[in-house]
Amino acid sequence: MLPPATSAEATRGTPNPEAASLLDLVPELGDGFSEHERGAVRRGTAVRTVKVAPGPWSPSDLVEDSGAVGFVLAEGAIVRDVLMAGSVASDLLGPGDVAGLGEDDTALVPVELRWTASAPSRVAVLDPRLLAALEAWPAVTARLLARATRQTSTLGVLRAISQLPRVDQRLLALFWHLAEHWGRVGRDGIVVRLALTHETLGRMVGARRPTVSLALKELATAGTVVRRLDGAWVLRREGLERLAPEPARWQPPDATVLPDLDAGVRTAAGPGLTDGARRDEMRLRLRLLDGFHAEQERRVREVLERCAATREELIRTRQRRDATNLQRSREPPR
Question: Could you count the other beta carbons within 10 Å of the beta carbon of residue 172?
Fold first, then answer.
């Protein structure tokens, strides 16, 4: 990452925003339109843009000034940090990515968001005025929503990366994930032109900086991820096979919604229940418990069946191994 800027301009967008067409900033949003339609959409989707200098940045001014609900990153790169307890988790936004703004009134977990521009950047503000204009072009709105949905899938990939058992695997997967957005084909492999410190990489994969440094040395020794003198990273495809999923090890998740045993209490007439109301409430609770017990019994049977199948496979594997060892012991020495 570039060193944080120290000027006041680094902590906010340029005070004089510029207007631009959303289609000029993100041309893919105009896919499928004829040239005539593209011209009409371009004129009808003027958007306010704000330049962001490298360093810490607060998008709260966008919300206060225009009631912005989000932004599209048009140029540059912005790191979004999520602070919780003593930890920081980071992800990187690139051109075309959509980010939401505003407070989540339903959130219970106390977190704090921090934003840092890693390079001179420019954001397109998604405010109520633009959203009203997009009502005439639902296809553009749909493509914006599709971009936001893809980013939700991206967060799922990052979560899976952070759960890989080895940090070198996490880093390998992260670099190939970043290559989807930032990679270019080079002479020696895929070049990812991002200057990322070991501390930042650790925040992105859920590891401490010293562990990241050791894992990067292992990857460089293997030749799968090598850092060039200019700070860019070179990836070689030989490492991708280590990331192939193992479907045979997957098991359906053991998660279910528990029955609401207090439903009868909430719908009843209060503390002055009649005997009939109490009996109805008791029968409701018993029916819920019966259904819950049946579901738990079914799930236990499934677990036992999987355990039995695994045990039988282990027995067959052991028998094959013993047969192979016996055959080898009977072969005459060479």
Answer: 25
CA distance 136 to 227: 48
* Dihedral angle sign, alpha carbons of residues 58, 62, 68, 70: negative
Instruction: Quick: pLDDT tens for 255-279.
Output: 777 766 665 545 544 555 577 777 7
125 beta partners: 71
Spatial contact of 205 and 219, defined as CB atoms under 8 Å apart = no
The neighbour count for residue 113, using CB atoms within 10 Å, is 13
Tokens of 325: 């060892």
Q: What is the reported pTM?
A: 0.71
The residue assigned the tokens 């990812």 is 192
| 111, 7 contact by CB (below 8 A) | no
* pLDDT tens, residue by residue, 30-69: 888 888 888 888 888 888 899 999 999 988 878 777 788 8
